[in-house]
Write a structure and sequence with these properties.
Elements lengths: L1 H15 L5 H6 L6 E12 H6 L3 E11 L5 E18 L2 E17 L7 E18 L6 E22 L2 E15 L2 E13 L1
């Protein structure tokens, strides 16, 4: 089922991207893949927000503009660390996630140096939760295994000296684990290189 969803998104990307004539393609160089790093705050949501505190995230991204179109494809891998949250009775929990995403985006045409965009796609995450059982109780941890989800968000690119930077916010649904909903809202800042 997930394979069909991924193929459907890829087919939609090519179906909705405007066609570019052969003559136009031969006069413009293909856009290279642009790499960037971003970091920021990750706010846990849903049941996950009851289990852990605010997190910090870091991601590596690769973005490819679709020729003759304001659309782009983006892949990313990242790591999120969520701070400890008191659960009462001397118990606290903290978590982390490792994951990746594949997104289709649209950059809005703009004559300004600020270029807004939207993006959305599919993601996969492995979530871990560690509980500190208090004095003498030790710790216990568990992980969710790989869980599929979806994401969507908005951002803007802008010039920052000799580089292009971006700021973005996204909702990320990361599936369910033992009946609990896992979701987050990362707000990040990144620089292309």
């Amino acid at each position: 089922m997930m394979k069909r969803a991924i193929l459907s998104i890829a087919a939609a990307a090519f179906a909705f991207a405007p066609s570019v004539s052969h003559a136009q393609r031969s006069h413009s160089a293909e856009s290279p893949v642009k790499f960037s790093l971003n970091a920021g705050l990750v706010m846990p949501m849903s049941d996950w927000g009851d289990a852990v505190g605010t997190g910090l995230g870091i991601n590596a991204l690769g973005t490819k503009a679709l020729s003759g179109s304001p659309m782009f494809l983006r892949g990313e891998v990242g790591f999120n660390y969520y701070m400890s949250k008191d659960q009462g009775g001397g118990v606290s929990t903290k978590g982390n996630q490792i994951g990746g995403a594949f997104d289709l985006g649209y950059s809005f045409p703009s004559s300004s140096t600020v270029k807004p965009y939207v993006l959305g796609g599919l993601n996969i995450h492995r979530t871990s939760l560690t509980a500190d059982l208090g004095t003498g109780g030790g710790t216990t941890s568990d992980n969710s295994g790989a869980k599929f989800g979806f994401n969507g968000g908005v951002g803007m690119r802008f010039k920052m000296g000799a580089h292009v930077a971006h700021v973005e916010g996204r909702y990320m649904n990361q599936g369910t684990w033992n009946g609990a909903s896992i979701a987050s809202f990362p707000i990040s800042f990144g620089v292309e290189f």
